[in-house]
Amino acid sequence: MAGPSSRNATFAIRLNKAAFTFSAAHFITYAGDVCEPLHGHNYRVAIEADGVLDENAYVLDFIATRDALSAITTELDHRMLLPTGHPLIGVEEATGPLGGDELVVTFGDRRWVFPKGECVRLPVTNTTAELLARWIGERLLVALAERGETPPTRLVVEVDECDGQVGVCRLGRS
Ligand SMILES: Nc1nc2c(c(=O)[nH]1)N=C([C@H](O)[C@H](O)COP(=O)(O)OP(=O)(O)OP(=O)(O)O)CN2
């Protein structure tokens, strides 16, 4: 229980743990039709959630939030991140010459082929740090609801793609 206070107080939790690091490959486009070469990052995710205190005096349980977020970052770890909503990047399923399930990715006259099981297809228009932050935040809100947590009034997700370059997404309550 929150004790009495003579001041207005607001509450938040912040989680920024090494467990929220994931290493993944991607490429983005910019300036309309310029497509980066394939490369990787050691991404690091942090979140802050605002909300009211529950009967435990928690905004959200650290443990439930940590476990839900690390499950999401683990899904992305050691994977090729592919956007399924990009207007110029094609992502098609195929069977490879050796019979394996593959994803054939195209951009103009460029073509990449990846083992399907080593990719994560994301419903985003570009795998920028900002849009990864939004996808992670939306997934986290669903996972928290499934665990019976009260939705935060605001969730801020930060995705740091290379030690100091951070995409931020702020999600309000819908
Ligand atoms: N606002 C954003 N800007 C950029 C993003 C982004 O997600 N949001 N992403 C990129 C590229 O992905 C690019 O890989 C990042 O830039 P860069 O510094 O070149 O990354 P490196 O890992 O190669 O870092 P080095 O220090 O150069 O080794 C661009 N902009």
What does this structure look like?
By secondary structure, the chain is of the alpha+beta class. The protein has one domain: 2-Layer Sandwich (Tetrahydropterin Synthase, Chain A). 19% of the residues lie in helices and 41% in strands. The chain contains two helices and twelve strands, in the order E-E-E-E-E-H-E-E-E-E-E-H-E-E. The chain has helices spanning 62-76, 129-146, and strands at residues 11-15, 21-26, 29-30, 34-35, 39-51, 79-83, 89-95, 101-107, 110-115, 119-122, 154-160, 166-172. The strands form three sheets. Strands 1, 2, 5, 6, 10, 11 and 12 form a seven-stranded mixed beta sheet that branches. The chain has a three-stranded antiparallel beta sheet with strand order 7-8-9, with no helix packed on it. It is elongated and about 70 Å long. The mean pLDDT is 96. The structure holds the ligand Nc1nc2c(c(=O)[nH]1)N=C([C@H](O)[C@H](O)COP(=O)(O)OP(=O)(O)OP(=O)(O)O)CN2. Ligand LPXRUNBV binds at residues 28, 36, 39, 41, 128-130, 161-162, 167.
